[in-house]
Amino acid sequence: MLLTLLKCKLHKATVTHSELEYEGSCAIDGDLLDAAGILPYEQIQIYNIANGERFTTYAIRAEAGSRVISVNGAAAHKANPGDRVIICAYGQLPREEAARFHPRLVYLDADNRIVRTGSDIPVQAA
């Protein structure tokens, strides 16, 4: 049996552009893609902290160092510049591998600079 797990995430990215007329997808700074391990054209889930929208699209590479997060095409209706979002990619692993797997977690500031990385989400206190 394969289990679907969080592969990686960009936590609290700031949307810099929202381009309705662009050909779909989400353009992400190439350095951020590399840090998270997200490949161009890989399916991603985007969770908009500002408005609660959750949607699926795919990643495309924006210029490295640009700090761009551009939500494009129809998805542009779901995010505006300045919105904070969580961008996740998932993978499937056999149960035995899943038990040992740790995701790549990349935490960003409001300017889409990496402030820290990790591989475990802390236990949530009651």
In a nutshell, what does this entry contain?
By secondary structure, the protein is mainly β.
Considering the chains and any ligands shown, give keywords for the structure.
2 helices; Barwin-like endoglucanases; mainly beta; aspartate 1-decarboxylase activity; single chain; 126 residues; autocatalytic cleavage; decarboxylase; nine-stranded mixed sheet
Q: Could you say how many structural domains there are in total?
A: 1
The number of helical segments is: 2
Query: CATH first level: which class?
Result: Mainly Beta
Shape: globular
User: Uncertain runs with pLDDT below 50, 5 residues or more?
Assistant: none
CATH architecture: Beta Barrel
Beta-strand portion reads over 45%
Radius of gyration: 14 Å
Largest sheet: 9 strands, mixed
CATH topology: Barwin-like endoglucanases
Number of strands: 9
Strand order of the largest sheet: 2-6-3-5-4-7-1-8-9
Average residue pLDDT: 96
Helix amount: under 10%
In N-to-C order, the SSE pattern is: EEEHEEEEHEE
Question: CA-to-CA gap between the ends?
Answer: 32 Å
Query: Class by helix and strand content?
Result: mainly beta
